What we know:
Strand order of the largest sheet: 1-2
Helix content: 55-70%
Number of domains: 1
Radius of gyration: 16 Å
Structural class: mainly alpha
Number of helices: 6
Amino acid sequence: MNIRKCQQNLAAGLAAARFTAPESSYLGKTARTIHGMASAYESDGLAFCAGGDPVNGLAGFFYGFGWLHFGYEYGAFGTFIETACPFTGGCDTLPSEYREKLEEKARRYRRLLDTARISVSPGPDPATFSFVFSERVLCISGLYSRQGSVFLESGRFEDALACFSYGHGWLDAAVTAGLYRITGERDLFTV
């Protein structure tokens, strides 16, 4: 998928999101924060692309998708409105002048995601559904870390960066929703 189409799908997903809880409730406030962060990452991605930086644009859009998809799975928004999967067919290859920056950023984002994953521990009691969901988010972020690593080692840096950004978006949103205690590096999260 090309970066512009990714942004359009993110914008469509954001526009389709319907809040399920009253604004004054905990879930309502959390939902609006999640939506706001996904929107901010879309805006950042647009600004990066407009400024000639498609590498950071790509990272922003996929990070925003991570937040958005977490929000749907968490129940912050109504029934998921199907938009094209941002991973359909892989990312288009960026022009060669971006290769060095792209590879460096993909390698750095792998380290950031892996460090973030070991910097949290589930906050809810193990007997609760919230704990089960926190374990699911760790699994999802781990799957995207592993898939991104496969892409990284095969030289598919766009796909690697997309995976690491998306997985970190899920984890960051889950921290914001209160599913984890930060036990390590706080600066890896937006709380």
